[in-house]
């Protein structure tokens, strides 16, 4: 992962196109899309996208030096180009952990670096704790540990104090007598038998996150939130995971199992003003894992590291 004495790059790398892409059947229900770019003989790195349900985008390749890295991106179950679209069946954290291993084996990669932001950091921790011998290093950005206090902060009114204008359309979609738990109320609508209700709920859910993900609102993000196809997968899958507490055995599971990965070279990168993934989670991970290098950025979600 480079010497700490080397200067950090503050920008993103030039856009590159994949030299390989395909689909991998990972269960009797799901097939995932994957692609490879950069240097075919380079150091392998797998990018774990956020959400869950967001899918990958071409810009994700730009985190990595294409001359040094063999860059692997894939869309998690139900997201992006993976099929079936927005499917919740056989879709859990541990299914995704197993998929990462299946993809590694399919690509004949003995071990690789793991990079994840937001939900991607959650999945990166779960995967590396399950398969520490397959991980050469970790870069975790915008830490999300899927604890109750994090979900309450973002979905039950905490972040609304900072973005009240974005919160009101999200809140007002739910009748007052169901506002004791917005995650449950949206789950009812995102799994409705009426596709019109599903789509409207998905757009409200997705737009709330798209409008709060950057300190200065990002028009490209907002356009994604307006897209029915994207928002349906994003909202349904994300809400499915949150209703089920990430399919983790306990609220502090990822912190409790840091010993399994303590020996792995790691960077924790956190924007101090990140509203979706507030800094308390990165701070808690840093305290549990002081061996990992902790980099605080005075930006919101898009803190970058030189790779």
UniProtKB/TrEMBL annotation:
Q: Where in the cell is it found?
A: Cytoplasm
- GO biological process: what's one of them? proteolysis
Q: Under the GO molecular function aspect, what terms does this record hold?
A: aminopeptidase activity
Major place of residence: cytoplasm
Q: Which GO terms describe its cellular component?
A: cytoplasm
What is this enzyme's class at the first EC digit? hydrolase
Which reactions is this enzyme annotated as catalysing? Release of N-terminal proline from a peptide
The protein's UniProt keywords, in alphabetical order, are: Aminopeptidase, Cytoplasm, Hydrolase, Protease
Domain AB hydrolase-1 per the UniProt entry, residue ranges? 44-294
Q: Is Glycosyltransferase given among the entry's keywords?
A: no
> Which EC number(s) does UniProt give?
3.4.11.5
Per its record, how is this protein called by name?
A: Proline iminopeptidase
For this chain, the family text in UniProt reads: Belongs to the peptidase S33 family.
């Amino acid at each position: 992962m480079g010497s700490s004495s080397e200067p950090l790059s503050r920008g993103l790398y030039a856009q590159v196109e994949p030299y390989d892409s395909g689909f991998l059947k990972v269960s009797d229900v799901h097939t995932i899309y994957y692609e490879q770019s950069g240097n075919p003989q380079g150091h392998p790195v797998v990018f774990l996208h956020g959400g869950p349900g967001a899918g990958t985008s071409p810009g994700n390749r730009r985190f990595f030096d294409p001359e040094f890295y063999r860059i692997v991106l894939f869309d998690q179950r139900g997201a992006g180009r993976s099929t079936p679209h927005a499917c919740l069946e056989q879709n859990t954290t541990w299914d995704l952990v197993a998929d990462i291993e299946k993809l590694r084996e399919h690509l004949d990669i003995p071990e690789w670096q793991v990079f994840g932001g937001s939900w991607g950091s959650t999945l990166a921790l779960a995967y590396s704790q399950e398969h520490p011998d397959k991980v050469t290093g970790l870069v975790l950005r915008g830490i999300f540990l899927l604890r109750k206090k994090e979900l309450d902060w973002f979905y039950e009114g905490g972040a609304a104090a900072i973005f009240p204008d974005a919160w009101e359309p999200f809140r007002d979609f739910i009748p007052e007598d169901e506002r004791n738990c917005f995650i449950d109320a949206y789950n009812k609508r995102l799994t409705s038998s009426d596709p019109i209700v599903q789509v409207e709920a998905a757009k409200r859910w997705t737009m709330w996150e798209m409008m709060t993900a950057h300190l200065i609102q990002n028009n490209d993000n907002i356009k994604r939130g307006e897209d029915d196809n994207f928002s349906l997968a994003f909202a349904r899958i994300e809400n499915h995971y949150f209703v089920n507490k990430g399919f983790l055995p306990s609220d502090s599971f990822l912190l409790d199992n840091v010993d399994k990965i303590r020996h792995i070279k790691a960077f924790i990168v956190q924007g101090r003003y990140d509203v979706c993934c507030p800094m308390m989670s990165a701070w808690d991970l840093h305290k549990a894992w002081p061996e990992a290098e902790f980099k605080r950025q005075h930006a919101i979600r898009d803190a970058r590291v030189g790779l």
